[in-house]
Amino acid sequence: MERIRRLLAGALACLFLAGCSVPLNGHTSVEELLRAPQLAGDYGMIQSALNEWLGQSAQLKYPLSGELLSPFLMGDYDGDGVQDAAVLYTTLDTSNVCLAILQREDGEVWRVQDTVEGLTETVDSVRFAHLQEGGSDQIVLGYLASQEEYYLAVYAYQQGRILSILEQPCEQYLVERITSKEYEDVILMSAAEGEGVQIELLTSDREGGFRRVAVMGLSPDRFMGCASLAAGTGGDGGQYLVLDGWTGVTGTNLASVLLRFNEETQQMEQAEQIGAAELYDASLRNVPDLISQDLDGDGVVEIPTQPGEAGLLNMSQGRRMDFIVWMDYTSSQPEKSFGLLDEEMGYYLELPMEWEGNLLLTDSAEYEGALELRSLDGQQLYLTVRITGTSGPAAGWTRLGVVASRQIQARLGPDAVIEDTDYRLSRSLYIL
User: At residue 299, what are phi and psi to the nearest 5 degrees?
Assistant: First the structure.
């Protein structure tokens, strides 16, 4: 009860500070108190138009993750070149998230055109896509029902109506151009107990829906579920998918699969550059958050590996650090980057390639909380890394970046010799 009183007091304070009047007549509900204040500008007019159409105040719903974290989704949903609006919301009469599309009449007044009720009470992610011919946007919503239940829905707006053109359970999804040069496809990943991971590739059909182009299964002996999915180009210019899957009895380790779409057979298949078993063994890692990604922004998805036999001698008493090599297995020269992963802070520090396999990591005796990279015998100092406040002094240090409101600084030691002319300490930090 005390917690509820504190929440209500905080909500009332926010409303008063925002200049809103609150009727303290005993009839105001907690739901009403927690609703956002009326917004200004276009968003305010869209919200007012939606409330007027509903005959009540809509509660705006915010996605939990992804790049689009607003309940207002602005896009061209009918392909006429004019911006439309979509809104995520709930009402007192609906428990699931609803989607409304609004358009301007005479370029001034926003009007609701249609609404549709979604699949669950929570939207996890939102993105726009071009899944059909023409210039219109489709809305892709990832719905979260529980920790183990996830659904994907794709909505199109045609002739004044919102159409649900895809609704399907999955664990992970990706919208990417795989089979067509004109529009994007949908890749779904799902897993069932004892059945491994299933990959489905869907593309738009002529009737405005989707057809299943390819289905591929991964052995349950190796993969229990899907942790992440990424797409990128390869060294041969082709389009590739990288799946990171959960492995082992407890499902806490990760390994990767490299896939591509074969235009001739119209099937997903494992890449030929490296065998599936060899890649599984090479990419097996015990850091749950270390997923494959385009590390350097060149369009290629790199796969992280933890090779134990050529690794880092870690003598630090207080930090969880790992030696990581990022690989592009679509290339004839797969090794892309070598460096240190700080598991606690969630950053990767790239190091010169010639240092690989010849490093001792230890705590610094000179700077409290700092780490040193030395030669294996400990006699030569190559690099010192420290974490300070964002306003900490940096004289003599290179400021690498800010992670979790803390500044990462480093400086090369007197014994550091770098043969790689492309290596720059100032560009070596990657936030994962």
Answer: 90, -5
